[in-house]
Write a structure and sequence with these properties.
disordered N terminus; about 20% helix; alpha+beta; four-stranded mixed β-sheet; single chain; 5 helices; 11 strands
């Protein structure tokens, strides 16, 4: 029947009018913060002079286009100071003190939810990359997450302020 086919065309783009119909939908851009793209967010937008609440799913990527009932929105995710996104993975750099790198120990590391403690092995080299499975970006439409890759930069202490203990450790390295 004629009505069924037209409704199908508007919803799924399956009928003869599907392709041309979607091209005539108005298109808007929306800038959101990195954390909003990580967690998902509800935003109030004005479309054709009407206030409309829209849900942005967790995990949306910069430049992603989302179709709502009668409009499209392209998402612009503002860059984050700590995390860079690569697909569903996140990449971050952090400085660790020389003595933590040499002797190992617990350090606080950034994750999107805040921070967590991890143990690093003695003898950690500058530039070592740690992979934290499942601590990356939310994957749209699922409860799963990508991985977090943490590049460790070793910070050297100010030699003038070393304790006797620390000097002994450094002498032991040479």
């Amino acid at each position: 029947d004629h009505h069924g086919r037209r409704a199908q065309a508007q919803v799924g783009g399956a009928g003869p009018f599907g392709a041309s119909h979607s091209q005539h939908l108005p298109h808007y851009a929306l800038a959101i913060d990195f954390m909003d793209s990580f967690k998902g967010v509800e935003k109030e937008v004005v479309i054709n002079g009407k206030k409309t609440k829209i849900k942005i799913p967790a995990g949306v990527d910069d430049g992603q286009r989302i179709k709502f009932s009668d409009f499209f929105i392209t998402i612009n995710v503002k860059p984050d100071k700590v995390f860079q996104r690569e697909g569903n993975n996140l990449v971050a750099s952090m400085n660790i003190p020389l003595f933590a790198a040499v002797l190992g120990g617990e350090i606080d590391i950034p994750i999107p939810e805040g921070s967590t403690k991890i143990r690093i092995k003695p003898g950690t080299q500058p530039g070592n990359v740690l992979r934290l499975s499942g601590k990356g970006m939310t994957i749209v439409g699922s409860k799963q997450r990508g991985d977090l890759y943490l590049r460790l930069n070793v910070e050297f202490p100010d030699v003038k302020n070393l304790t006797t203990e620390q000097k002994k450790v450094l002498e032991g390295l040479s």
